[in-house]
Design a protein that fits this description.
mainly alpha; elongated
C-alpha cells in the first residue's frame, strides 16, 4: 500500500490548503440590489417628496417637535397679521411696538426650535451608530470566515450571504440619508466597501481539511 509522502518536517499530514469563499450567487446579488432599491425609494427624492412626514420620522427625527413649532409659528403669524405687523418687512422699517411683538414671538419660538434641533441631532447620531455597527459586523464576519472557513466549509455560502445582507442594510441606510457619510472620512468608507469585496471574492486561509 502506498504510504503518504512525508513533509520536510517528517510529518505525513497533507499540506495546509487554501479555501476560497464562494463568489456571490444570484441570491446574494438580489439581496444587495433590494437594499439599494429600498434605499433609493426611502430616500429624500422619493419618500421625502411623497410622504415627507414619514421620511422625517424614519431618517431625520424631530417630527413631533416640528409639528409643535409649526403650530406655534402659525398661531403667531395669525396674531401678528391681526395686529397689523408686516411679517415680510425689514425690521429697521418697523415701529417699536411692532418690533416688540416680533421679539416676543422669537423668544417663544426659540425653545421649540432648540428641541427640534436636538431631536434631529439625536436621530442622526443613532443612524451613524447603526452604520458603524454594520461595518463592525461585516469585519467580524470576514474574520470569522478566515478563522473558521476551513473547519466549517458547509457554512461558507452563508458567510457570503451574511455579508450581502449587511451590505444591503448599509446601502438602505445611507441611500435613505446620504449625509450620514459627511463626518466619516473617505478612507473609512473605502475600507468598509473593501471588506465586503474581499470577504466575497478573495481566498482566505483556513485550517486543515
Amino acid at each position: 500500500m502506498t504510504q503518504p509522502q512525508k513533509s520536510a518536517t517528517g510529518s505525513s499530514e497533507p499540506p495546509q490548503r487554501i479555501v476560497m469563499l464562494p463568489s456571490p450567487g444570484l441570491r446574494d446579488v438580489i439581496v444587495v440590489l433590494i437594499g439599494a432599491v429600498l434605499g433609493l425609494l426611502a430616500g429624500p427624492h422619493v419618500l421625502g417628496q411623497v410622504q415627507p412626514d414619514a421620511y422625517r420620522h424614519a431618517f431625520l427625527g424631530g417630527l413631533g417637535e416640528k409639528r409643535a413649532l409649526d403650530e406655534l409659528r402659525e398661531s403667531w403669524e395669525h396674531t401678528l397679521t391681526e395686529l397689523g405687523v408686516p411679517l415680510d418687512a425689514e425690521r429697521r422699517d418697523l415701529e417699536s411696538w411692532q418690533l416688540d411683538r416680533l421679539e416676543a414671538r422669537d423668544e417663544e419660538l426659540a425653545p421649540f426650535k432648540e428641541a427640534m434641533d436636538e431631536a434631529k441631532a439625536e436621530r442622526k447620531a443613532q443612524l451613524q451608530g447603526t452604520s458603524r455597527t454594520l461595518a463592525l459586523a461585516a469585519a467580524t464576519v470576514l474574520v470569522l470566515a478566515g478563522v473558521c472557513g476551513g473547519r466549517l466549509t458547509r457554512f461558507k455560502p452563508r458567510f457570503v450571504t451574511a455579508i450581502a445582507a449587511l451590505l444591503a442594510v448599509w446601502l438602505t441606510l445611507h441611500l435613505g440619508r446620504p449625509d450620514l457619510l459627511e463626518p466619516v472620512s473617505l478612507p473609512f468608507t473605502a475600507l468598509v466597501i473593501a471588506l465586503v469585496i474581499v470577504a466575497a471574492l478573495l481566498p482566505l486561509p483556513s485550517g486543515r481539511q
